[in-house]
From TrEMBL:
It comes from Zooxanthella nutricula. Keywords: Signal. The lineage of its organism: Eukaryota, Sar, Alveolata, Dinophyceae, Peridiniales. Pfam families: DUF3431. InterPro entries: DUF3431. It comes from the Eukaryota. This is Uncharacterized protein. Residues 1-22 form the signal peptide.
Length: 103
């Protein structure tokens, strides 16, 4: 589970202080299409805001914001930055919808 430790280390960098209401210290932004998101729930903690954007069907298991199915994950990441520019987290981790793997 080296991947979990690596992701946890990255997310922990921004979790030192209590999360602010307007902008959390750490945010995990997931670009989803049709992947299984069961892995993402473990990061939905008090120190990390989980933000899922989907260009496919909205998953029943997790809150997600719908985006038009244009571009790729970089479109999702840029949309997040542009639409939340004034309230971005101190640390933002961008990832695709599939569970992180190592190697």
């Amino acid at each position: 589970m080296a991947v979990r430790r690596a992701v946890a280390s990255i997310l922990a960098l921004g979790c030192g202080a209590a999360a602010r209401e307007a902008a959390p210290d750490t945010e995990l932004v997931v670009a989803h299409f049709k992947e299984d998101l069961s892995w993402a729930a473990m990061w939905n903690t008090s120190g990390v805001r989980l933000r899922v954007y989907t260009k496919g069907d909205v998953p029943a298991s997790i809150a997600a914001e719908r985006l038009p199915n244009v571009g790729r994950e970089s479109h999702t990441y840029l949309s997040h930055i542009v639409n939340n520019y004034d309230s971005l987290a101190k640390w933002t981790v961008f990832t695709q919808g599939a569970a992180p793997t190592w190697g």
